[in-house]
């Protein structure tokens, strides 16, 4: 099996066969047909694609699968051109989980609600993939893979501090981090503008980044729940020397952690590779745990990144397109993809397939409470000049939390209008 990797280092059911035998799918004329699949660069390894293409061809002998790799740069415009009929349409497209709403809003995506309920096991899908793939209570995006943040910790520093057990609650997490934050050791390295981590705390408190009332979106950072989340973030962030006016990539937190005097970071497990490249001595010192929740009964909410599969309305072979998605989203190839690429599978019932990898297992544990950004077609406008990051820095450098939250909420409202 090829060397595994994890994407989204940014910041992130049962199957009933439509057609599983060789030959033509029900309702289709026999004869060779071509099915085109767009996958994003680095989402799947070349070996995985080759294995899947060979298998799919054997299962559906009359269909020739053409997998075309697309770069992330400029993909939004390219998909829009497909949906608007400006360029030939592939039959299935991989898109980012948070992008579905904007594509549905433009028109041209096939609704897959019936197939999701009848054939694709939607009841077991990860919420952070399923919810953003749904628009106006109709399913358009079929979950493919996910990744989310966990806590990566330095086991040697924890041992030196006499800490033998990972925390089960956020209160325990704070207490442990205070103990670790001593002398030359930073209890945690948490950048002031890590809004992905902050979002999880907002959801954990019962708040939202923005709320929708009959299609009218409003920023919600000034709610009591979101303000409690900012209080917690500020308390945790102060137990280290993370920059208050920068995000986790400026400088890259993996390189900071590799210095050996930081006890924890919040990151996707794939950052372990960058840590080890920067300092090979760290290879045996890394541990992982899911971000704790407010109580021990459930883990903390996390931002889920990942991809879903969509079908353009202009596909010439709906049945074959759905059969392709069913295969990619089914247990056999979800297991293969997760183990090959260090992803979280698309269903909570498949977390067992990554149990042997500590980092991915922690990620899967947290993914049960995964969320995505507000499902507005205009959310990209918020991230363009992200007021959440500005708000966080303002509070961490002494600004009044309530006033700064109201200001940021108004900016979010304008961006979503």
Annotation keywords:
417 residues, alpha/beta, six-stranded mixed beta sheet, 38% helix, disordered N terminus
Please describe the topology of this protein.
Layout: E1 33-40, H1 46-59, E2 63-70, H2 75-83, E3 92-96, H3 100-106, H4 113-118, H5 127-130, E4 134-135, E5 138-139, E6 142-148, E7 150-154, H6 155-160, H7 170-180, H8 195-204, E8 210-213, E9 216-219, H9 224-237, H10 253-257, E10 264-267, H11 271-278, E11 286-289, E12 302-310, H12 318-329, H13 331-341, H14 358-367, E13 370-371, H15 379-384, H16 387-396, H17 401-416
Helix pairs in contact: 8-9, 16-17
Would you mind describing this structure in some detail?
This protein has 417 residues and is of the alpha/beta class. The chain is 38% helix and 15% strand. The chain has 17 helices and 13 strands. Strands 1, 2, 3, 6, 12 and 13 form a 6-stranded mixed β-sheet that branches. Helix 1 links the parallel strand 1 and strand 2. Helix 8 crosses helix 9 and helix 16 runs antiparallel to helix 17. The protein is globular. The protein starts with 32 loop residues before the first strand and ends with a helix.
